[in-house]
Amino acid sequence: MRLILHKRKRGHVWKIAAALVVMLIIGCYVTIEGVNQPASVNAGTPLTVTINCQTFANTSSTQAVVVGVLVPKIWNASTNMTVTFTSDITSGAQPMTVIPTSVAAPGANGLNWQTDMLNTLGHAGNLIPEYEWVAFQSNQQYTIGGNQTINEVFTITCNVGQKNVLFNMGYVVAESNDGLHSTAWGDPNTSYFGTYFPGALRVYGTGTLMDFVNPQLSVATPSSATDNDIITIPFNATLVNTGLSSAGAVYVCATGYLTNGDSITVCAQNSQSKMTLQSAGNWSMEMWPRGFFKLSPTQSLDSLHYLFTDQTGTIKVGYGGKSYPFSFDFGCN
Amino acid sequence: MKRMKWSLLLFFSLAFLWSCKVENNLKVPTEPIKSINGTWQIIAATENGSDLTKLYDFSQFRITFTDSTYTITNLLPFMVNTTTGKWSFNDPQYPFTMTLTPTDSSSSVSSPLQYPVVGGVRNMILTFSPGCPQNSYEYTLQLAQ
């Protein structure tokens, strides 16, 4: 008799556990209906974007809302961006907070939300690897009733800095239970989050345009660097027809402009200035400017101008495939 | 007679148990102080998570530690910009931070430190930003042969 009771109790335990498991895998289906993003914004003016979103839950469930935005790193968006939302089931603007990089996304094998978004959703075709996903989560969790559809409007505001930028934006809305990988109820993982890639945003600012959208002959990275960083100087020799399109070896010819107004030119074709062929027509060189220009401890660089040459140094290719040099301003903003 | 047998049995049992004593010879091992004396070289380097090891020549960099001083030859982007100074750990037994103080400066620079043994070889992993604070470098060092 006791055994039977135990079995009955065990049966209840399993039923409760199974119910809990089902509750955990209940899905919220998320769809982005539209994104209102301006085509351009002036530097110093806050960028404001709204996302219209719909969430449906097949059974009552409770979760936090997650929003990700693909942005250029130079915006420092984790500090300069705010996200709030309104919805059918809340009153007033609901605050959201940046998800720390130490927080693992659900079902992402330990990856944080930011890396999981990049790996899963990509980088919207931006060509310069100076982008990042910033992830926000609602400060509290919300319960959605069974078979209930709610409408949400997210408002994103960001200080876009002072630099000239052309960038393909990207947005994702998800929730904290399912993340980007749930396939519960036999649905594909894309049912559990919504994405929207509205296209390029132009920031009219100062300095050389940081064009993430159109292929460039050369954009040095990281875009924010001092002369004591190692910068990567790439060269796409076949993007336009230049004298180096079929060169067997390419060298960097550079002039460093010092903060005191002096300049140093290093234009010898040797092992220090030789670029490495990464793939057909794509060359690159890692440069530590302090070492490249042999600066003394008291010297520092303000900017860098560079051209690409062949082994003889007679063919020189600069900005736009012409003879005017590419430029790079040192600074951390 | 029977009672006497039980009394004797009880007596000898107590005497047997009483003869046991706790040996206090189990000592907690003491973690040795970590010594990094010697000349170290860079075997791996990343910038903002991207592997630079094969893209830039780190092979000539050397940093030599004595009990309290360091000397750098063939300087690269590093925690400090000068070649001599003093070093210290936050804890000599359980170090998680290394601090370098250049000879010509009163200000010091600290770096998170990892000190794992990989493949039987002691590694020292330092993370720092020599230029812009948003650019993070991680060097893995091993004792030079």
What structural keywords apply?
heterodimer; A: 333 residues; mainly beta; Immunoglobulin-like; 2 domains; 5-stranded antiparallel sheet; B: 145 residues; Lipocalin; 1 helix; 39% strand
In short:
The complex is a heterodimer of chains A (333) and B (145). Chain A has 333 residues and is mainly beta.
CATH architecture of chain B: Beta Barrel
Specify the structural class of chain B: mainly beta
Number of strands of chain A: 21
Question: Any idea what the shape of chain A is?
Answer: elongated
The CATH topology of chain B is Lipocalin
**Largest interface, and how many residues on either side?**
A-B, 20 and 17 residues
Q: How far do the termini of chain B sit from each other?
A: 83 Å
Largest sheet of chain A: 11 strands, mixed
- In sequence order, what are the helices and strands of chain B, one letter per element? HEEEEEEEEEE
The largest sheet of chain B is: 8 strands, antiparallel, barrel
Indicate the low-confidence ranges of chain B by residue numbers: none
CATH class of the largest domain in chain A: Mainly Beta
What percent strand of chain B?
35-45%
Looking at the chains present, what oligomeric state does this protein adopt?
heterodimer
Please describe what this structure looks like.
The complex is a heterodimer of chains A (333) and B (145). Chain A has 333 residues and is mainly β. Chain A has two domains: 26-209, Immunoglobulin-like, CATH 2.60.40; 215-329, Immunoglobulins (Immunoglobulin-like), CATH 2.60.40. In chain A, 12% of the residues lie in helices and 42% in strands. In chain A, the strands form four sheets. In chain A, strands 1, 2, 3, 5, 6, 7, 8, 10, 11, 12 and 13 form an eleven-stranded mixed beta sheet that branches. In chain A, strands 15, 16, 19, 20 and 21 form a five-stranded antiparallel beta sheet that branches. Chain A has a three-stranded antiparallel beta sheet with strand order 14-18-17. Chain A is elongated, with a radius of gyration of 26 Å. Residues 1-8 and 17-25 of chain A have low confidence and may be disordered. Chain B has an eight-stranded antiparallel beta barrel. The model of chain B has no long low-confidence stretch (mean pLDDT 89). The chains are: A mainly beta (333), B mainly beta (145). At the A-B interface, loops of A face loops of B.
